Amino acid sequence: MAQPASFRNQGRSDLPISVLLPVSNGARYLAATLDSLLAQTLQDLEIVAVDDGSTDETRNILEAYGARDQRLRIISQPRSGLVSALNCGLAECRGTYVARMDADDISLPHRLEKQVACLKAHPDMVAVGCQTQIIDASGHTLRRGFYPIGQENCRRYLVTRASPLCHPAVTFRVDAVRAVGGYRQAYQNAEDYDLWLRLGGSGEIDNLPDVLLKYRLQARMSRRGNRTSRL
After folding, report:
1. What is the pTM of this model?
2. Among 90, 123, 128, which Cα is nearest to 112's?
3. Among 33, 123, 124, 131, which has the highest number of CB atoms less than 10 A from its own CB?
4. pLDDT band at 117 (very low <50, low <70, confident <90, very high)
5. pLDDT tens for residues 143-159?
6. Is 128 part of a structural domain of the chain?
7. b/e sequence 122-132, b meaning 16+ C-beta within 10 Å
């Protein structure tokens, strides 16, 4: 499959991981999300935050954090939607691995360390997710989110049921995702599921048994399609 021009000839670095964080009018929870990423046990990272035309305090919050920590890189674009923001950020990621993150969720401290270690230990794996803790708008725990464990179980679930991975809880190999063309605008209501289907042809996907993400359940336009499969 041909790669979009923006994904070609990306410079490599020794940076282990980039966090891909699209945000549109996410000021309410953004600081807590950034705090959880900057407090990771894996400290050698960058956060690529794509501000998709926000009109609230999102930009000010990003700039304040960026002034304090150079690991945060801010990219701005006119309001273009989630898929556009994801591809824009994906083109800028310099890490060998990319962790997805939404601007209202919380990554637990060992999330990135454990997911990177898993991908390093399994060269055939192109993406790894984890279990989740579902929280409400106030941060109170609602229930546990369960996702299939084991490569065969994930492959079977992907083909016969729905997405086996929680999108904002996934870390993937950036080269593998770029090789299949990144996210596709035609599947904007299920951009993650479409990506997993294409990635399945190049490697395995799996989930860790650990709860590593607090997933905030709320009505958001950016959460259509990819937020309901295994809650």
Report:
1. 0.90
2. 128
3. 33
4. very high
5. 999 999 999 999 999 98
6. yes
7. eeebbbbbbbb
Structural domain that includes position 124: 14-221
For residue 11, pLDDT beyond 50: no
Q: Is residue 230 part of a domain?
A: no
Of the chain, the end-to-end C-alpha distance in Å amounts to: 32
Q: Beta-carbon neighbour count of residue 210 at 10 Å?
A: 14
CATH of the domain at 65: 3.90.550.10
Residue type (1 letter), 172: F
Crossing angle of helices 191-199 and 82-92, in 10° steps, is 50
Q: What mean pLDDT, rounded, does the chain reach?
A: 90
pLDDT(219) > 80: no
In a domain, 199, yes or no: yes
| Alpha carbon distance 96, 60 (integer Å) | 29
Number of domains in the chain: 1
Q: Using the structure block, give the residue that is written with the tokens 């990144």.
A: 182
1 in a domain, yes or no? no
Q: DSSP E strands: which ranges in the chain?
A: 17-23, 45-52, 72-77, 97-100, 106-107, 125-135, 141-145, 171-173, 204-216
